Amino acid sequence: MKPFLLLIFIFTFYYYHGQNKNIVNPEKIENPIQKKYAGKIIFLTQNMATENMRDSDIVPSTVLQENGDLRIHAFFDNSLVNYLHQLEPSWSADELLKKGNYQFTFYVDGKLIYKENLNTGAGTPDHKKVKTTLQIPLLSSKNEDSWGRYLWMRFYMAHNGIDALTAGNHILKIEIRPYLNTATIKTGSVIAEGQINLTVPAQNITEQQIAIQPIQSNSGWKASQEKINTEAIRTLNKKIAENRFKNITGIIVIKEGKLLLEEYFNGSGRDSLQDTRSVGKSFSSALTGIAIKDGYLKSENQKLSEFYDLKLFKNYSSQKDNVTIKSLLTMSSGFDGNDENYESPGNEENMYPTENWVKFTLDLPMTENPIGKNWNYFTAGVVLSGDILDKSVPHGLKNYADQKLFQPLGITNYKWQFTPQQKPSLAGGLRMKALDFAKFGQLYQNNGIWNGKTLLSKEWIKKSFTNYFPDRQDFEGYGYLFWRKVYTVGNSSYEAFQSSGNGGNKIIIFTKIPVVMVITAQAYNKPYAHSQVEKMVQEYLLPALKNE
Fold it and tell me: pTM for the full model?
């Protein structure tokens, strides 16, 4: 080769290579099925490798069975990281995968139902760098642990897919695009799409399952004579019977201090002790308020250094000395703990196997966040608030809670979860009857008064029902271990503060109307658990109270 031609070749090679340094060589597309269905999504009922797939394995239609099997297999022309590279050419592969993934769009009968930008942690980086196929289960009789199944649950249960797929025949269409979260969401063109004909079988629901359950005697409450929209409740009951609202065990509605609605489902009953998980955290808030009223605690502004010699624990810092009870109640203590981040050292799953949950918490390092400013869901901090109570009140927390809260409310049948030191755990797990949880909610509705006796101060309830994080965009607010939630019915808004626990468990105390609701459920660790309950409240229970 002549010298000047060699120089041109070298220049061209290095220029091209430099301009495309972020492009990754994807796997070769050689399989006949993959070539034939490039840019398509096909539906299957069994897991199989691409090389073993035949046209006869593709399912053009099926009967939708929630305990059945349904998978998708998508074929692309390129790997995900290279599609993302088209959206942001200057980023490296690792940068792209930290900010981007697949976007899924679900249509039923041509109507857009749900769109999700898949969490960047779904799928492995290696797969997204080189693979040009994607196979995931949507429904699985084997109960596979897959992000695909959770994606389907969010579409189906949390975002109205189940309402769109009524009994009869439907067309389900799915589109996949690449997305990248820069300052805004950038979305590429469709890289795969496909559809399937679904037949949804009708269910045989009896009148007994739909009918409003009569309130039996000896409830411990006066029965309300208020009118209620019976059709709204019957429709709700039908959806629970059809499993369109899943794993619901109880609904209690109290209006103006009287029992208006009491219903149980799925084998639960009035005497069932409901496992409401983190609903129990709100009891820590109440007991702290009672201990302050009784003078066993000076105020919620007391610091950890007044209760512990923090230098005896790991990761000591002067900032840890200044953590307050209030910051524990508002989940803004500054400890390096976040239950929503599995990599967080203070994640609750790291706490439970340890021999001493209090020591686990006090050993944690602090973040650089100022105390009281940054909210993170932090169960270990609530354990700490319970230990402070146990150290401060006479005869320990178990006895104090019984004497000062449960006995005055007439609650005699309940079960604590205990820490490894056999102290009541205020992290959650307190079990009692749904009607007794309603008493707790009504105590707040009564401004702390029960049967003429002040158990909680009005001032404490006001502090508890204050939103300390009004600037957060990802949720509606948080008080002293109570969540703020605004429900909307038509043109009306209803603010509530609520106890909330895994599975969809709620004690809902409305601030402007004299209503308390308790919903108990067992949809533990399901992505639709809370959204389905909020839908029940907003679309059925609140409208039923308006009797329209």
Answer: 0.90
